[in-house]
């Protein structure tokens, strides 16, 4: 049952296919990721890039029409070897998940306090320790346990529901925390608080996987960044180096689309996974494409002189320049 790696998360060769009436849909293809203890791994990409599918695969929460290949190790355990009961116990004790839709994550017929205490106790805390830990975590997000304990989830605003789930992730020192769009519905001040709270988790030794479309949050967290497009991991880089000079043209386009960097949209439309292009999924939108890009999807390779960065790109030298440097307003129209 124990995998070679005891990192909070190690993903090797992960591919996810959905069998549909229209044929198979490749949601993820040959994903390799590693998240050490006490670090951030921030997964970014447009809607439909495969970010949430990745989280569902790690949680073993994919639908029945799924074909999955590859291995996923959490805290040194291959989750595919666990039966349902053992998997549930393992997730409660080793893994915390902050879902994208807080309204559907909280049991609507359970009072918030009862639900939180039950989940905290499932992570090994005594009733007294659970109350102390929950009270502290909620207070850091401007929530009072006594005021919300007797409320039902629908009696909390969306932002309050999100904060409740963020606080719950602090309980029990899980090895791996998966935060799927953890700043949904939060104002700027609470985004800063949430980022600080996630940093506390890494400070306790947890590996924190953050799935987000918010590039500003990604930059604020630091750590390592994984860029997904069309189900492929097209770039893996230290976050600081990505924002200084992305290695893949898609990353260059994402940064150039930020208002503070010119607000130039990426030409074309996101890839349709039911009818992907024959080559690189970004090829139809790429301003730097060459004939090779229409062939087989390139394999990941190290960025020249930067062995801690990898990119799926045929270009002899990826952009590696500040975003917008090679783009013009006319080209973006």
UniProtKB/TrEMBL annotation:
<keyword id="KW-1278">Translocase</keyword>
<protein>
    <recommendedName>
        <fullName>Nickel import system ATP-binding protein NikD</fullName>
        <ecNumber>7.2.2.11</ecNumber>
    </recommendedName>
</protein>
<dbReference type="GO" id="GO:0015413">
    <property type="term" value="F:ABC-type nickel transporter activity"/>
</dbReference>
<keyword id="KW-0406">Ion transport</keyword>
<keyword id="KW-1003">Cell membrane</keyword>
<feature type="domain" description="ABC transporter">
    <location>
        <begin position="11"/>
        <end position="255"/>
    </location>
</feature>
<keyword id="KW-0547">Nucleotide-binding</keyword>
<keyword id="KW-0472">Membrane</keyword>
<comment type="similarity">
    <text>Belongs to the ABC transporter superfamily.</text>
</comment>
<keyword id="KW-0813">Transport</keyword>
<dbReference type="InterPro" id="IPR003439">
    <property type="entry name" value="ABC_transporter-like_ATP-bd"/>
</dbReference>
<keyword id="KW-0533">Nickel</keyword>
<keyword id="KW-0921">Nickel transport</keyword>
<dbReference type="GO" id="GO:0016887">
    <property type="term" value="F:ATP hydrolysis activity"/>
</dbReference>
<comment type="subunit">
    <text>The complex is composed of two ATP-binding proteins (NikD and NikE), two transmembrane proteins (NikB and NikC) and a solute-binding protein (NikA).</text>
</comment>
<dbReference type="InterPro" id="IPR027417">
    <property type="entry name" value="P-loop_NTPase"/>
</dbReference>
<keyword id="KW-0067">ATP-binding</keyword>
<dbReference type="Pfam" id="PF08352">
    <property type="entry name" value="oligo_HPY"/>
</dbReference>
<dbReference type="InterPro" id="IPR003593">
    <property type="entry name" value="AAA+_ATPase"/>
</dbReference>
<dbReference type="GO" id="GO:0015833">
    <property type="term" value="P:peptide transport"/>
</dbReference>
<dbReference type="GO" id="GO:0005524">
    <property type="term" value="F:ATP binding"/>
</dbReference>
<dbReference type="GO" id="GO:0005886">
    <property type="term" value="C:plasma membrane"/>
</dbReference>
<dbReference type="Pfam" id="PF00005">
    <property type="entry name" value="ABC_tran"/>
</dbReference>
<dbReference type="InterPro" id="IPR050388">
    <property type="entry name" value="ABC_Ni/Peptide_Import"/>
</dbReference>
<dbReference type="InterPro" id="IPR013563">
    <property type="entry name" value="Oligopep_ABC_C"/>
</dbReference>
<dbReference type="InterPro" id="IPR025662">
    <property type="entry name" value="Sigma_54_int_dom_ATP-bd_1"/>
</dbReference>
């Amino acid at each position: 049952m124990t995998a070679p790696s005891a990192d909070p998360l190690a993903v090797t060769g992960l591919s996810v296919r959905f069998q549909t009436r229209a044929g198979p849909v490749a949601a993820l293809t040959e994903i390799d990721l590693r998240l050490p203890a006490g670090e951030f791994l921030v997964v970014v990409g447009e809607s439909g890039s495969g970010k949430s599918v990745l989280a569902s695969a790690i949680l073993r929460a994919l639908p029945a029409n799924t074909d999955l290949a590859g291995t996923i190790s959490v805290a040194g355990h291959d989750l595919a070897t666990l039966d349902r009961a053992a998997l549930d116990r393992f997730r409660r004790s080793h893994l915390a998940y902050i879902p994208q839709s807080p309204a559907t994550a909280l049991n609507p017929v359970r009072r918030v306090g009862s639900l939180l205490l039950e989940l905290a106790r499932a992570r090994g805390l005594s009733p007294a320790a659970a109350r102390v830990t929950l009270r502290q975590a909620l207070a850091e997000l401007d929530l009072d346990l006594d005021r919300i304990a007797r409320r039902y989830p629908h009696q909390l605003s969306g932002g309050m529901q999100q904060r409740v789930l963020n606080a719950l992730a602090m309980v029990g020192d899980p090895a791996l925390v998966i935060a799927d769009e953890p700043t949904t519905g939060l104002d700027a001040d609470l985004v800063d608080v949430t980022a600080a709270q996630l940093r506390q988790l890494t400070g306790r030794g947890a590996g924190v996987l953050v799935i987000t479309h918010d590039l500003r949050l990604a930059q604020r967290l630091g750590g390592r960044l994984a860029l997904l497009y069309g189900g492929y991991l097209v770039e893996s880089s230290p976050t600081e180096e990505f924002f200084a000079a992305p290695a893949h043209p898609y990353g260059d386009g994402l940064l150039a689309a930020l208002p503070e960097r010119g607000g130039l949209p990426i030409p074309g439309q996101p890839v349709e996974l039911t009818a992907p292009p024959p080559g690189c999924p970004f090829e139809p939108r790429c301003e730097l494409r060459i004939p090779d890009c229409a062939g087989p999807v390139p394999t990941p390779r190290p960025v020249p002189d930067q062995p801690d960065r990898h990119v799926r790109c045929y270009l002899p030298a990826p952009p590696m320049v500040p975003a917008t440097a090679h783009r013009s307003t006319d080209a973006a129209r």
